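FAQ: What does a multi-protein file look like?

Like this. Sequence, then tokens, then the next protein.
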Amino acid sequence: MTDRLTLYRATDDDIIVGCASFALSREAAEAYLRNPGYGGRSLWRAEVEIDPETLLDLVAVDDPIATIMQTTGLPHPGAIGADEWVPRIADRLADVGIEWVRVAESYPTNTVTYIFVGSDDPEMEPVE
């Protein structure tokens, strides 16, 4: 059974290169419209179906870094959080069958982000 979600992304266009972060709430994505160096000038929406078998849920675990290490076989990344490490190892996660990673986000504080690391890019449409 898959989970169907509406996710939001602030970016300049609908092209995804490598991996992409999507906010669970529109409000969290809107914060990236005003965050220089991240996000972009336009708000986009994607209706996605996420297979729990291809989701690495790092919000539901006590130690996200250890969970990534166990899933990928990679060594500890040092002084970075899971939300920073996942984009750097997107290819490795995809190689072990992960398409989406759910992380607790540091900005905006106490939000949840879904990071797409799979191969079949979600289709996005502009939010009016």
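And here is the next protein:
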Amino acid sequence: MWIVGFISSTVYTMVFFRSGLYAFSALYLYYVAASVYGMYCWRFAKRPDSGAATAGRPVARLDLSTGIVLAVISAVLFAGIGYVLDNYTASSTPPYGEALAASLSVVATWMLARKILEHWILWVFVNLFSAGLYFWCGLYPTAVLFVVYGALSVVGWFRWKNSFDIDN
């Protein structure tokens, strides 16, 4: 999965840059690096109880303190990205719309790398919201793809929740 993400993110970095979607272009550049980080986290995770490397990181739930930190990070990224897009680019989407999708995507990708179940909730929102932005920009095939991603995010939520026997 991480290899496919690496390749597709590299391609979309260029597609979005050429379309004037600068935050999305930068976001996909981030995804390239996050793919390497995620592969590392999933392969060489250490169990907190033993410190030993495991075959894979266990799925975890989002705790309150991490949730608060991630909410603050999302808000700061949103404000910063939105400001830059609004004042320094000729973005083809509403700058704060692109900033919202980009900031939440950064946080959701970090949560995915750490196998935090609730990242799927963010992806449902981000994918459907982004589909609307891509439609607005005339990137119709990409808009359809992101509607599919939104549906797959719902499936992902239930699969992770059921497969890993996570309460609530």
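Q: Is there any per-entry metadata?
A: Some entries carry free-text notes. For the entry above: The longest helix spans residues 64-88.
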